[in-house]
Design a protein that fits this description.
The structure is a single chain. By secondary structure, this protein is an alpha+beta fold. It folds into four domains: 100 residues, Rossmann fold; 69 residues, 2-Layer Sandwich (Dna Ligase, domain 1), CATH 3.30.1490; 238 residues, ATP-grasp fold, B domain (D-amino Acid Aminotransferase, Chain A, domain 1); 26 residues, no CATH class. Helix content is 32%, strand content 24%. It binds adenosine-5'-diphosphate (2 copies) and magnesium ion.
Length: 494
């Protein structure tokens, strides 16, 4: 087993990974950018190394600086988390070339699955069902011909895509030229690559993905599904396991297809095979494989009882994964809500600012993975994911009730967040009935934030005047109760 691991990431995932290390008795090294000097993940680690400026390119994506930090601290392995360098095969190779262990799949598997066009071709050859479509097309005419063959609507997609970027739904030949242009532009900007593919756009689809896990001794299993259909801009907001849609027979078939997909590229460690599920036909198609730990891994941890981050580290160190498929089962129901610093009423644009107060919910079956504390600065440099709230209960109904109670207890002040938006979805009958498809938020859910009642504003004003004013010279420093009128700095006299 390793003595020291460097975590090449930030935010909630960096802390979650370091916690796994701590439980395994492994020392941790954090890396951080200028903007993250005081970030919680830096304080959580045993050691921390500054690796560059705030822009990701200068720090969290800077391979030489990350490797240098590992060398300088004597770390033996690097965990990339998700995002950043996690799906970068060149990084995985560079880690190995530096004599260190990359905690993740083999570089060859990352490369084979890194490109949506190439991975679809590989999957078709391996007998995994893929969405009808066409890859490696040249001009507009070829795209229109392919779309006519497939049948509208179609989806134009960046081959190098990720994070929902570079995707356009096209409903007729007339819409094709503009869709190609804008998808190309977005893809070039985000990934430095403008290759596109086209595939059948499946209406009212569900996103259902399978967690796979393997060791370096040939044991490769699946850890069941996650339903991730609550999305905005093709990006997940709420995930759960099990999926309310799957029958045991379809679950078993999807699980087998995912293992087959992973086996075809010589996979080990944790990975996720994403499928688009057509409820009308009860059929599923391979979308892509994410060759890393996923944001929503905690729901799988809850229902399987396995610590995926710890097992990632253990199999990277060469340990066998001791569970066979027949040993594994799903227990109860888990839901995750992603708390984002974004304006759900204003096009989901990211917001920034200082967290004035953050109080996490607590209680049986509630887990919070967060990268913020009261006082944290949310900058424009990074992904706006602040925290994840995960609940586990005996049934889906109980899990929904538990999540609603947990959200009610959470306090988050200082930045605009999707907090009210999450509560509204959890309270919606469509969610209770499990019939939310991937475009539901954008097409059917007409959410508007509630106006604050005047009583709330009055209470806030009153509280503001009553709580000690730090600038005031007449503060009573002998009064321990911060809400006492004797503590007040607003000129109150007996
Ligand atoms: P998941 O299924 O784990 O949510 P995503 O593809 O949505 O997978 O990405 C997970 C995280 O990785 C996102 O929150 C984002 O921070 C980061 N990420 C993924 N792809 C990109 C990208 N192309 N550019 C920037 N960040 C990305
Ligand atoms: P990314 O790398 O950005 O995660 P994916 O291919 O996994 O890209 O797709 C992201 C989301 O886009 C899916 O979860 C789904 O909502 C939607 N999507 C992708 N392909 C299709 C399709 N063929 N039909 C309908 N929706 C799709
Ligand atoms: Mg995806």
């Amino acid at each position: 087993m390793f003595n020291k691991i460097l975590v090449a990431n930030r935010g909630e995932i960096a802390i979650r990974l370091m916690r796994a290390c701590r439980e395994l008795g492994i020392k941790t090294v954090a890396v951080y950018s200028a903007a993250d000097k005081d970030a919680p993940h830096v304080r959580f680690a045993d050691e921390a190394v500054e690796i560059g400026d705030s822009a990701p390119r200068e720090s969290y994506l800077n391979i030489p600086n990350v490797l240098q930090a590992a060398k300088a601290t004597g770390a033996e392995a690097i965990h990339p988390g998700y995002g950043f360098l996690s799906e970068n095969a060149t990084f995985a190779e560079a880690v190995a070339a530096a004599g260190l262990i990359f905690i993740g799949p083999p570089a060859s598997a990352i490369r084979a699955m890194g490109d949506k066009a190439q991975s679809k071709i590989t999957m078709k050859a391996a007998g995994v069902p893929t969405v009808p479509g066409a890859e490696n097309l040249a001009g507009e005419t070829e795209f229109i011909e392919a779309a006519e063959r497939i049948g509208y609507p179609v989806l134009v997609k960046a081959a190098a895509g990720g994070g929902g970027k570079g995707m356009r739904v096209v409903r007729s030949a007339r819409e094709m030229p503009e869709a190609l242009d804008s998808a190309r532009r977005e893809s070039q900007n985000a990934f430095g690559d403008d290759r596109l593919l086209v595939e059948k756009y499946i209406e009212n689809a569900h996103h259902i993905e399978i967690q796979v896990f393997g060791d370096q001794h040939g044991n490769l299993v699946h850890l069941f599904e996650r339903e991730c259909s609550v999305q905005r801009r093709h990006q997940k907001i709420i995930e759960e396991s099990p999926s309310p849609l799957l029958t045991p027979a379809i679950r078993a078939r999807m699980g087998e297809a995912a293992v087959q997909a992973a086996r075809a590229v010589g996979y080990f460690n944790a990975g996720t095979v994403e499928f688009i599920f057509d409820p009308a036909l009860s059929s599923f198609f391979f979308l892509e494989m994410n060759t890393r730990l996923q944001v929503e891994h905690p729901v799988t941890e809850a229902v399987t009882g396995l610590d995926l981050a710890a097992w990632q580290i253990r199999v990277a160190a060469g340990e066998p994964f001791p569970f066979k498929q027949a040993d594994l089962s799903q227990r109860g129901h888990a839901i995750e809500c992603r708390l984002y610093a974004e304006d759900a009423a204003g096009g989901f644009l990211p917001s920034t600012g200082r967290i004035l107060r953050f109080i996490e919910p607590r209680g049986p079956g509630i887990r919070v993975d967060s990268g913020i504390v009261t006082g944290s600065e949310v900058s424009r440099f990074y992904d706006p994911l602040l925290a994840k709230i995960i609940v586990h209960a005996e049934s889906r109904e109980a899990a929904i009730r538990r999540m609603r109670a947990a959200l009610k207890e959470t306090v988050l002040h200082g930045v605009t967040s999707n907090f009210d938006f999450l509560q509204a979805i959890l309270a919606h009958p469509a969610f209770a009935e499990g019939r939310i498809h991937t475009r539901w938020v954008e097409t059917e859910f007409n959410w508007q934030p509630a106006e604050l009642p005047i009583e709330a504003l009055l209470a806030a004003a009153l509280a503001d005047g009553t709580i000690q004013n730090p600038k005031s010279k007449i503060e009573n420093r002998y009064e321990p109760d911060p809400f006492s009128p004797w503590k007040s700095g607003n000129g109150f006299r007996n």
